[in-house]
Amino acid sequence: MQHLPGVGPKTAQRLALHLIKRPDEDVQALAQALLDAKQQVGFCQVCFHLSAEPVCEICRHPQRDPDTICVVSDSRDVIALEKTREYKGKYHVLGGVISPMDGIGPEQLTIQPLIRRVSQQQIKEVIIAISPSVEGETTTLYLGQLLRPFTKVTRIAFGLPMGGELEYADEITLARALEGRRELE
Amino acid sequence: MQHLPGVGPKTAQRLALHLIKRPDEDVQALAQALLDAKQQVGFCQVCFHLSAEPVCEICRHPQRDPDTICVVSDSRDVIALEKTREYKGKYHVLGGVISPMDGIGPEQLTIQPLIRRVSQQQIKEVIIAISPSVEGETTTLYLGQLLRPFTKVTRIAFGLPMGGELEYADEITLARALEGRRELE
């Protein structure tokens, strides 16, 4: 269990000792649940978000705006954005960001299916919501070039986080916050 | 010394014992430096930033754009923004934010002198750079209403901080990052 993310040697030992003490049925139920999850959960054919069905719940949802696609690198980002309850469009999960150092090029990501989606449907806006890092910037700019012939391409704002104090913000965040300033309405 | 910010009983004791062990001249020099600083450092007459002169170095600097004023709540924010080396205009230090709970209304801040500056000079843009909190928002909107008749009023961007992971951002920051999205250039 040490190989699980966030589980070090101590936690692994605690988990193992806990399971050994539980009744057999409980451990069997957990093992079965893990196998079932692994078997049943796959990727949505349309947006590549995790899904137990061939097409995920968000893609099938009739009330969600089909003209807007929010591009993220990972399914965890979909979950984070859904928690805001602000976004009502669809998603596209890339499965990572372009990172030549790690051997991840555009062909390892779901970029081709994204281009296909955007070129074949009437998409009004693609919102790129990728975390700001060198690889994230590269991926955003690359996607921008590919998608701009088909639709409007926007990216999420970078700046001061909520509850953040100007005084404690790092220089790059402050510089981006200044650069990204907008007219007060 | 316990009353100084960041100095609790333990640190106060450590500082006191340290000073007692130092030669007399050292302690006298420190005491004199404190008195001198208190006596010599005041507020700039124009922007209310800390200054040893009647008008501060930034206000007097001939290369700084006199048509742009960045409004901050505190002198510490000026120092933070100067570190970015991105901003080349002037400042205005409010001396706090509007906070009725703490008995701070507009008249306790340097808002009147700011209005006078903006109405009497040719100011092209006022950038409001106030940390996002309930009081900060109130102050920003209040200033926007007062200043908009005279000039363009902008505010710094709120969103994902640099190096921030989408997945770990709080909901309000993510919602603001989505809302503040801009077209990819």
Protein described:
With 185 residues, the first copy, chain A, is of the alpha/beta class. The first copy, chain A, is built from seven helices and seven strands. Chain A has a domain of 92 residues. In chain A, strands 4-3-5-6 form a four-stranded parallel sheet. In chain A, strands 1-2 form a two-stranded antiparallel sheet. Chain A is globular. The mean pLDDT of chain A is 92. Chains A and B meet through helix 4, helix 6, strand 6, helix 7 and strand 7 of A and helix 4, helix 6, strand 6, helix 7 and strand 7 of B. Strand 6 of chain A pairs antiparallel with strand 7 of chain B, so a sheet runs across the interface.
In short:
With 185 residues, the first copy, chain A, is an alpha/beta fold. Chain A has helices at 9-21, 24-40, 57-60, 75-84, 111-120, 134-147, 171-179, and strands spanning 42-43, 50-51, 68-72, 90-93, 125-128, 152-155, 182-183.
Indicate the topology.
The structure is a homodimer of 185-residue chains.
Chain A: H1 9-21, H2 24-40, E1 42-43, E2 50-51, H3 57-60, E3 68-72, H4 75-84, E4 90-93, H5 111-120, E5 125-128, H6 134-147, E6 152-155, H7 171-179, E7 182-183
Parallel strand pairs in A: 3-4, 3-5, 5-6
Antiparallel strand pairs in A: 1-2
GO molecular function, one term (chains A, B): zinc ion binding
Function (chains A, B): May play a role in DNA repair. It seems to be involved in an RecBC-independent recombinational process of DNA repair. It may act with RecF and RecO.
Keywords (chains A, B): DNA damage, DNA recombination, DNA repair, Metal-binding, Zinc, Zinc-finger
